[in-house]
Amino acid sequence: MLNKVVIVGGGTAGWMTASYLKAAFGDRINVTLVESGHVGAVGVGEATFSDIRHFFEFLGLKEKDWMPACNATYKLAVRFENWREKGHYFYHPFEQMRSVNGFPLTDWWLQQGPTDRFDKDCFVMPSVIDAGLSPRRLDGTLIDQPFDEGADEMQGLTMSEHQGKTQFPYAYQFEAALLAKYLTKYSVERGVKHIVDDVQQVNLDDRGWISGVTTAEHGDISGDLYIDCTGFRALLINKALDEPFISYADTLPNDSAVALQVPMDMEKRGIMPCTTATAQDAGWIWTIPLMGRVGTGYVYAKDYLSPEDAERTLREFVGPAAADVNANHIKMRIGRSRNSWVNNCVAVGLSSGFVEPLESTGIFFIHHAIEQIAKNFPNEDWNPNQRVLYNRSIAHVMDGIREFLVLHYVAAKRQDTQYWRDTKTRAIPDSLAERLEMWKTQVPDSESIFPYYHGLPAYSYMCVLLGMGGIEMKPSPALALSDPAAAEREFAAIRDKTRRLTETLPKAYEYFAQHH
After folding, report:
1. What is the pLDDT of residues 299-334, one digit of tens each?
2. Name one Pfam family in it (predicted).
3. Checking DSSP bridges between strand 30-35 and strand 103-104, what pairing results, if any?
4. What is the separation of C-alpha 27 from the centre of its chain, rounded to a whole number of angstroms?
């Protein structure tokens, strides 16, 4: 039986993988994690999809167990600022899209929207976020949603199996380094062997499979399955096994970032429960509020902006609080390995692939990959079909997210710099071009978006198209013949619920100050 797993590389990817595999297989599997004491983590992946809660559920962890240790906060949406024009903003929330007479409420909004704000007319969360509120009350009870928290029949499903069945109202924001530290303790307590050492060589046998890794102080370490969590270095999958890397740079040119971790008085500042993406002259700046600090960074394309100018812009954006904070400059490798499972090696995290962090996909990619490893874990016959299924699933997720992120730039109305003008003439995936033509006359639905699981439902596409403003959207012609009364009642119900929640929910900081 194959049961010896060697994970090369730590950080969030390595320790999420180690903890998940131990939770899945217990003592029936031997896991060794080797990480260097000298290689720092990239550390931009602090915001998540709402599906990440399934990871913590699988490990048997409650929010009270891990959130305080990771300075974590809630994320109810992504807030996009200045993508349409300076001063404009909209939300892409974690909230189930309502339907009326078989049409999504956004379609009715195009026909007869009460205001010019699709997000506040069609969803509750944008107003909750604007008020800086928590989705949980001080006693811990969750905001009322069409969602049964902790339902037994939903436990143990993978993210793809959950999609369409539920929409949890929030994701998390946390310090990635603190989560890795927390999961290190969790994993070691459950039997993971932790070795801090530098891998000097990856050894291959006559077939080209990995036979072991040679470390500086612990010598040779061998296993059955090797998991590459070495980040952009891709020490095993790309360097040792020479698996080709497929670049996405032709459609997603942002290849650099500069990040700051800015200590702040969050009680005074308040916590806006969302991740903000603020468009800039040559990219965009993320803002992630945590307990005790704000994580922020400028994602940009080096062809349009120098690292020095990017750092200066970021510091000016943050203000005086950033004056003495060290900047972390990051070169991003945008794209994916052609195959993320080759022979007896699986790449997880940045070694597998990465797109820019615009929709907080980095942690999602890790979570999805380790779910698929557990689902397709090999035995002695190394059935090649398992590798095929795994690689197909990873490629679909990466390629689907690529399309979704490209859509942001194509759909953005902003054209005030060369960077933004070029987003309208740059090549886009052929399949996205075809879909865009359909969406101009029929809003996105599950049949017209990227056809394979990639973590994003159709309403996410609607939010981007309606919010960015660069592509004219039209309501379905059938709505002109439909009675609008039911849609009007739904818009009114959202207004009533929004008013009720904003009057009764606590401030986000107040909630976390009590529970941390």
Report:
1. 999 999 999 999 999 999 999 999 999 999 999 999
2. Trp_halogenase
3. unpaired
4. 31
